[in-house]
Amino acid sequence: MHPGQAALCQSGSSRPLPFPDRLAQRATDIATLALSRPFPFAFMLHSSDGPMYFQTAVTVLDWFGIVVFAVSGALVASRKQMDIVGFALLGTATGIGGGTVRDLLLGRLPVFWVQEPAYLVTCVVVSCIVFFTAHIPGSRYRLLLWFDAVGLALFAVVGAEKALESGANPVVAVTMGVITGTFGGVIRDVLGAESPVVLSREVYVTAALLGAVVFTAAIGAGLPREIAIGAGLTAGFSLRGAALYRGWSLPRYKPRPGRTLAELQKHGSLARRDD
Predict the structure, then answer these.
(1) Alpha-carbon torsion, ordered 71, 116, 149, 249, to 10 deg
(2) Is pLDDT larger for residue 186 or for residue 253?
(3) Average pLDDT in the 153-179 region?
(4) Prior bond to 110 cis, omega within 30?
(5) What distance in Å separates the CA atoms of residue 200 and residue 142, rounded to the nearest whole number?
(6) What is the 3 state secondary structure string of the chain?
(7) Rg of the Cα trace of the chain?
(8) Measured between alpha carbons, how far is 101 from 274 in angstroms, rounded to an integer?
(9) Cβ-count burial of 217 within 10 angstroms (0-12 exposed, 13-18 middle, 19+ buried)?
């Protein structure tokens, strides 16, 4: 008998259930079906991995990071004075580019935004909104950098977790975390003809690396998933935030100054003297 039909009968009797009971049973069936579908917010309400509130917070931050990354990509398009298609392209590439590269390298096919098109739609919609309102986030770019730091740290942790779920070893997991957090920006900069952020002096890739390392190490030590995610997120965001606040940057290579003519003659004379 179909589950919906079973609800019409009481146990051991063919008499129909009262209307309130049938309504409650029907609502339960609908909720069960909805939670079994791959809808982006479904696991906010049903998760076996951790408390409901924690998973909800991670989900909110995940979507928040997607939006912030899409806005940053669209702002590059605004500086290049692109049309709305260019806005959508750069915003989408920034928002889902890192996760796409991760899934392709791990063989997780189809990639995440093909399974959940809401990610793709969100990036396109946000980019189109920025096309008409670019002056608003552009005037608050410093604040946007702090929001970006949250997304960077979270994506690094999520990327490492996805890699571990795929059976990757810790080194690969850390690498996938860095790729997830930073390669969207790399694709954005390449398409926008700008110097990639990974090649700049900013403490950006290093922050993603720290977050992924802390998370992977915590999981390897047997800590609960909630603590591992919190530790990785805190470590990555703290380093990036400190770099933004204090203006930290990585040291650059400085070439050794060439020798003067007098030094060369001195060494040459010493060489002749040794002969």
Answers:
(1) -90
(2) 186
(3) 96
(4) yes
(5) 17
(6) CCHHHHCCECCCCCCECCHHHHHHHHHHHHHHHHHCCCCCCHHHCCCCCCCHHHHHHHHHHHHHHHHHHHHHHHHHHHHCCCCHHHHHHHHHHHHHHHHHHHHHHHCCCCCHHHHCCHHHHHHHHHHHHHHHHCHHHHHCHHHHHHHHHHHHHHHHHHHHHHHHHCCCCHHHHHHHHHHHHHHHHHHHHHHCCCCCHHHCCECCHHHHHHHHHHHHHHHHCCCCHHHHHHHHHHHHHHHHHHHHHHCCECCCCCCCCCCCHHHHHHHHHHHHHHC
(7) 26
(8) 59
(9) middle
Q: Are 90 and 77 in contact (CB under 8 A)?
A: yes
pLDDT tens-digit readout, 91-150: 999 999 999 999 999 999 999 999 999 999 999 999 999 999 999 987 888 899 999 999
Q: How far apart are CA 260 and CA 254, in angstroms?
A: 18
- Residues β-bridged to residue 202: 249
* Adjacent-strand bridge partners of 9: 16
